[in-house]
Amino acid sequence: MTPVRKRFTAEEYHRMVEAGLLGEDDRVELLEGEIWQMSPIGSRHAAALRRLRLLLSPLEAQGRCLMAIQDPVRLDAFSEPQPDLALLKPREDLYREAHPGPEDVLLLVEVAESSKAHDLERKVPLYARHGIPEVWVLDLGERALHLFRHPSPQGYREASLLKPGDRVSPLAFPEVSLEVESLL
């Protein structure tokens, strides 16, 4: 018999945690049936995430969205990434019964300090195939924001590279204008 790759489902992935094969504090995520170990969070990464949280938290305070920090998003039975930040449609139950799905996402943000290739080559196309309307990859090394909008099964129809001096507004909140420099 020819060896075949075993793809894990999200349910199997969660059973591994319950059985102690994966610890709740392990930095792993499930992408297309594969378990990926994520890079440790460096100080620049953590600071960028705090800045994003501060800049976008007024939207949550106004009840216009829920902000999730490094929480799972269930894309399908085989993918449950943990984006650095997600703006979600507000729900009173705070997604208590199940992780949010693609239809719940307004914006996903990945902060790339050492994970740029993984984020751009693996995660962004996965997000596009699942209809995530907008993804930002904050590239700390290049001091730039990779902006992706309008998903299709083939990828995002709009991709831009924004630099310090540029401004960005989330599609879901066009009245919110942020300086790219303030995100870096």
TrEMBL record:
GO molecular function, one term: dioxygenase activity
Oxidoreductase listed as a keyword: yes
Keyword Zinc among UniProt keywords: no
Record keywords: Dioxygenase, Oxidoreductase
Domain Putative restriction endonuclease intervals: 11-181
Pfam families: Uma2
Name of protein: Dioxygenase
Organism of derivation: Thermus aquaticus (strain ATCC BAA-2747 / Y51MC23)
